[in-house]
Amino acid sequence: MSYKRILTIQDISCLGQCSLTVALPILSACGLETCVLPSAVLSTHTGGFSGYTFTDLTEDMPAIQKHWEKENIKFDAFYTGYLGSAKQIEYVKNIFSATGNSDSVKIVDPAMADNGNLYYGFDNAFVDEMKILCDAADIILPNITEACFLTGCQYKDTYDEAYIDELLNALNKNSEKTIILTGVSYSPESTGVIVYKNGKKEYYSHKKIKNGCHGTGDIFASAFAGAFIRGKSEYDAAKIAADYTVACIEETQSDESHWYGAKFEPVLGKLIESLN
Ligand code: PXL
To answer: Of 221, 187, 225, 219, whose CA–CA distance to 206 is shortest?
Structure first.
């Protein structure tokens, strides 16, 4: 197995099992050298806690990039998640070009919205920058809400395949990329993920668990990035990541006090097994 170096750029929510506290262990478990660039430090994530701290690290980024350039540090892959400001997205694009090789894979999770709404603190200026970052990516992993914000399509709770095709075409309009569209559900008992590449669409469907958990988008994206950079195809990586995410939700489901995240650690072994 070749040993690859990935840089993941997203926030540290000190408590909350999302973003870097999820990405770092999962990518490492997938056998990758995992480097991190924190976009911000928050005491908790923003999805259900109040009064959290937020320290924006945007202005640290150019100096970090400059140091890496001086040391001639290069990354085989990039994976971005929750970013702290619109300005930061511009810096992320500079980091891609300054520290990537011609074949470095750029994976962008436009983590900014769910259930029809933007996360607290994001606005249209952020969405506009995120559109540009997605057009610079090789692979994007939006959920349906994010796909709507990125394209201007209308958000729908229930839909058919024609609606999903409309979203995929709109996402691909400005630049050809692989699209991993998450949370696509055509029936009450199941949900799944669409893998769309070079005009070919595949769907991996799995059971829907009624009580989802916060942070599962980050678990899915991290496991997908880890499995894909480890050498799996896009479809196999999506399947591995979806199965792992379901296992994490099942692990958490019976514990109501654990509403803020998914217990991904006890089932990391399952993810590792599925890679072999
Ligand atoms: O899971 C996405 C995420 C990441 N980071 C922070 C968040 C959220 C979602 O709410 O608030 C800080």
So the answer is: 187
